Amino acid sequence: MRPRGVTVHHEVELGLIIGVSSRPLKNLSSTDPKILDAIQSFFLGIDLTARNVQDEAKKKGLPWSISKGFDTFLPISHEIPRDRIPDPHDAVLWLSVNGELRQKDSTNLMLFNIPRILSDISKVMTLEEGDMVLTGTPKGVGPVQGGDVIKCGLEVDGIEVEEGKIEVEVVDDTSEEGYVFKET
């Protein structure tokens, strides 16, 4: 649901689901050869951002978590078993809007690799079973409008991973009671 007055942008991202661990997942080292063992499974997510809400909050030096926190702003795929993505640094993510390819690139181009991401997070908060982590997005982030159909997926060795497919329609919120963006 796209709230009234909100400019929404899409970002396809590989997600990680943290599994059971025999040790606390706190202050992990990015060089730990077992750090990827913390991953139980994967998912694909469409990380939606209320860009104008984010920009206003940033300009004022305020937290901008609201820009990511609307109820429908993270559609996710089915859970992807770990063995379907043997190397999470060698998969291709793609996203299209109304049939137009907007994002498609390899996870080997991520600014930070997964061990670094998990290490950084674990220095702030302990990772626990069931926690979900997004890893970043390929170039091509852009706006969506009401009525747009977003599709995304991922490929491993040139083969589409069925569990990773997502298709959602962007629906405008027309209710009188819902959120309306207004600059303050």
What does this protein look like?
- The chain has 184 residues and is mainly beta.
- The protein has one domain (8-169): Fumarylacetoacetate hydrolase, domain 2 (Alpha-Beta Complex), CATH 3.90.850.
- 10% of the residues lie in helices and 30% in strands.
- It is built from two helices and twelve strands.
- Strands 6, 7, 10, 11 and 12 form a five-stranded antiparallel beta sheet that branches.
- The model has no long low-confidence stretch (mean pLDDT 95).
Which key features would you list for this structure?
184 residues; mainly beta; Fumarylacetoacetate hydrolase, domain 2; five-stranded antiparallel β-sheet; four-stranded antiparallel β-sheet; 2 helices
CATH classification, class level: Alpha Beta
Strand content: 25-35%
Number of helices: 2
> What is the rounded Rg?
17 Å
Instruction: Give me the CATH architecture, please.
Output: Alpha-Beta Complex
Superfamily at the CATH H level?
Answer: Fumarylacetoacetase-like, C-terminal domain
Total tally of structural domains: 1
Distance between the termini: 23 Å
Which geometry do the CA atoms define? globular
Overall strand count: 12
Helicity range of the residues? under 10%
For the largest beta-sheet, the strand count, sense and barrel status come to:
5 strands, antiparallel
Structural category is mainly beta
CATH topology: Fumarylacetoacetate hydrolase, domain 2
